[in-house]
Structures are given as structure tokens and as C-alpha cells.
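# step 3/5: fold
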Amino acid sequence: MYQEVMASTDPARAGRLVPGSAEEKAAIARFSDFLCSLTPAGVQDKTRQVYAEDAYLNDTLKEVRGVAAIEAYFLKTAQAATRITVEVLDVAESGGNYYFRWTMEIVHPKLADGRPSASIGMSHVRFDAQGKVVLHQDYWDSGSAFYAHLPVLGWLINWVKGRL
């Protein structure tokens, strides 16, 4: 699905926001604010303002398509966590592709015995002409930040890392 979405949202063919425009700045601010508001209320209030109807999301743990599926996925994630804190560190743009570099700290009762788990990552985002996200592909260290904290799998990952 990723390659299909990459082709269908190609800014050279599908259009893009004008660099430096008020619309571009507003789209960047909406997406950044959404990432930094991953609470149940924030997800319910903001998802449909940020994502286009047929948007694509892959956060390395799950691939979903459509704003309703994205909202349901983020809502489930936010409800399961005790706290999710995201800080957007910077944003870069190249040919209609936007790269949001961020740090995330998650507190989840089933991860790391409920202790905070930190990660670094980057989101590749494309906006439509209305400034809504049509593609959101995350790149982050899910091994250290997530899988390493699961009971049996975590022990195995840490054992392999110790052997390298």
C-alpha cells in the first residue's frame, strides 16, 4: 500500500502547498500540534482537522488508511497509555515532502513496568491542497522504545544487542 500511496500523493503530480505560504505554515502547525496532543480528547478534537478523508498512516507498528481508521487507532493508543509526550524538534521541507523530527516519551502500564520509555523519530508527511495530511509515514526506533520492553521479546532483543 505504501508504494501506491507514495505514487498517488506525489507532490509533482498531485499538487502541493506553496512554500512559505500562510496555508503551509498553518498545515505544519496543525500537524505539530496534533502530535503534541496525543490524549484521547486531543485525538477526538483534532484528527479530522489534520488528516484528509483517505489519508494513509504507517507508524511502524500499524498501517491504516482513512481518517476514521486513523482516529480509531490513535484513540486506542492514547486511551491505553498513561501518558504520551511528543516534542517536535524541527521541520524540513523538500519538494512538497515534510519531515518532522521529534522525541517521544510514553508511559504505558504494559511497557517497561510502567516507567517512561523514550524514543526519537521522524515523520514523513505530505499535505493536500487544503493542508490536510494525505501521507504520514513514521520512522522511529521501535525496537528500543517498544519491543525491548515486552516480556519475552524484550529479553531476547537485549540478549542479541549484548552479543553484537
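# step 4/5: annotate
The first strand starts at residue 51 and ends at 58.
# step 5/5: archive (pending)
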